[in-house]
């Protein structure tokens, strides 16, 4: 019984995704076809089509899973312990110092190898 329900949901999802693809295609083609019209009108039309396509996509199994993931990610962001301003500045300065040091080392190695190759080639 469960597999039958899943198969019906899968068929329904295919139909919904087809509608989403058609709406996105209509937005792209319509924006190109009505290129002589005002940008504001075309933007409004594309936004309306995008909202409708997004709403339909969220009604599918994968769309619901994505929405759940987004809600959980938002909760997780609230739990993150963000660094203080001082920690951020110190870390940034350390990264800059390491980048400058490594660039000087690589420049020195490149120059030395270039000098060696020039001496060998003549």
TrEMBL record:
Keyword field: Cell inner membrane, Cell membrane, Membrane, Protein transport, Translocation, Transmembrane, Transmembrane helix, Transport
GO function terms (MF aspect): protein transmembrane transporter activity
Main location: membrane
Recorded GO CC terms: plasma membrane
Location of this chain's protein in the cell: Membrane
Membrane-spanning intervals of the chain: 14-34, 40-61, 93-117
Organism field: Marinomonas mediterranea (strain ATCC 700492 / JCM 21426 / NBRC 103028 / MMB-1)
Designated name of the protein: Protein translocase subunit SecE
Protein task: Essential subunit of the Sec protein translocation channel SecYEG. Clamps together the 2 halves of SecY. May contact the channel plug during translocation.
The keyword tRNA processing is assigned to this record: no
Family affiliation: Belongs to the SecE/SEC61-gamma family.
Glycoprotein is among the record's keywords: no
GO biological process: intracellular protein transmembrane transport; protein secretion; protein targeting; protein transport by the Sec complex
Oligomeric and partner information: Component of the Sec protein translocase complex. Heterotrimer consisting of SecY, SecE and SecG subunits. The heterotrimers can form oligomers, although 1 heterotrimer is thought to be able to translocate proteins. Interacts with the ribosome. Interacts with SecDF, and other proteins may be involved. Interacts with SecA.
Domain of life: Bacteria
């Amino acid at each position: 019984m469960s597999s039958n329900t899943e198969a019906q949901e899968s068929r329904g999802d295919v139909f919904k995704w087809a509608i989403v693809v058609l709406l996105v295609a209509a937005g792209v083609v319509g924006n190109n076809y009505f290129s002589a019209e005002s940008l504001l009108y075309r933007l409004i039309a594309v936004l309306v089509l995008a909202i409708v396509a997004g709403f339909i996509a969220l009604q599918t199994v994968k769309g619901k899973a994505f929405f759940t993931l987004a809600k959980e990610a938002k909760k997780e962001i609230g739990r993150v312990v963000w660094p203080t301003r001082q920690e951020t500045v110190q870390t940034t300065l350390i990264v800059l110092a390491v980048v400058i040091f490594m660039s000087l080392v690589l420049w020195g190695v490149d120059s030395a190898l270039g000098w060696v190759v020039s001496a060998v080639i003549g």
